[in-house]
Design a protein that fits this description.
about 300 residues, mainly alpha
């Protein structure tokens, strides 16, 4: 890690173009925190609705779960930045990270990451023991299984990383119903299967960066055509999953199926396009909209069905 940190020291001499708040939010990957909180809240909300309990009578659980989840996700993201200090300077899209520019010292990043994770776990265990245990599982899956192990060694690193990304809705559900029902595992599967086509699209856009950093992402190792085949397969696997949530009704099934058909059409179109990177960008944008619309729809349909 010495090479990465020396580059960070050199970058520290460059004029600052971002504020402290902007750098802090970049350090904890605020976009990832926010998107994961949507899935945490969805799990929490569906557990309340399916168990005929009113969230206004359990505001403490709501606060403990959302704050705790935000803290462990932010802490894990900061830990990822700490771990990747040696490779981030090699990637153009990562060179503005505060761990690369030298805005935050590695020791400070490590201390913040650990503090956030510990504090977040205190909140989650206050909600329920199951939520706290799942929080630990998610953190270990992201920090150890993905960031420290599979990311740099295995072409299946994205699939391994999908485990941690699928745990947030389980945390939300477990805060209300610690035993976890079938609906909780349906949310887990949706998030787990959604992530590979989402992150493969991003990896295609950054193939040369990952190649320079020697990270064995699927587009780097197997090429674009093989990556497109994999993305198509993962999108197809999404089709039956909405039907694992029968409580949400026919309206939700129709909406989810339309979203799946749209993504399937876009995935198939990828085999005929001339500009692979432009197509990858459209796949990435669609995946973000897909996840947001689907999970917000779950929250709405759970109320009105």
């Amino acid at each position: 890690m010495s090479n990465g940190r020396s580059m960070s020291a050199e970058a520290h001499d460059a004029p600052e173009t971002t504020t402290f708040v902007q750098d802090f939010l970049a350090l904890i990957k605020i976009g990832i925190v926010n998107s994961n909180l949507i899935t945490v809240f969805t799990g929490l909300w569906l557990a309340f609705q399916f168990s005929d309990r009113h969230f206004l009578q359990h505001l403490d659980i709501l606060v403990y779960t959302l704050v705790g989840s935000a803290l462990i996700i932010a802490g894990s993201a900061a830990m990822n930045n700490y771990i990747d200090t040696d490779i981030d300077p090699l990637m153009a899209s990562k060179k503005s990270r505060p761990t690369v520019t030298g805005r935050f010292k590695p020791s400070a990043v490590l201390a913040l990451a650990v503090s956030f994770i510990v504090l977040g776990e205190i909140f989650l265990f206050s909600a329920s023991v199951s939520a706290g245990v799942l929080g630990i599982a998610g953190t270990l899956a992201y920090v150890v299984l993905y960031s420290m192990w599979s990311k740099r060694r295995h072409v299946g690193n994205t699939i391994v990383g999908s485990i941690s990304g699928a745990i947030p809705p389980l945390i939300g559900w477990a805060a209300v119903e610690p035993t976890l029902g079938a609906g909780a595992w349906a949310l887990f599967l949706i998030m787990f299967i959604w992530q590979p086509p989402h992150f493969y699209a991003l990896a295609m856009k950054r193939t040369e960066e990952y190649r320079a950093a020697n990270i064995p992402m699927l587009p780097v190792v197997k090429g674009f055509h093989r990556t497109k085949k994999s993305m198509l397969a993962w999108v197809l696997m999404l089709f039956p999953l909405p039907f694992l949530l029968p409580e949400l009704g026919i309206g939700f099934f129709i909406l989810a199926t339309l979203l799946n058909l749209g993504w399937l059409f876009l995935a198939i179109r990828g085999f005929k396009v001339e500009d692979d990177l432009k197509w990858a960008k459209s796949m990435f944008i669609y995946s973000l909209n897909y996840m947001t619309i689907l999970f917000v729809a779950m929250i709405i349909f759970a109320v009105f069905v």
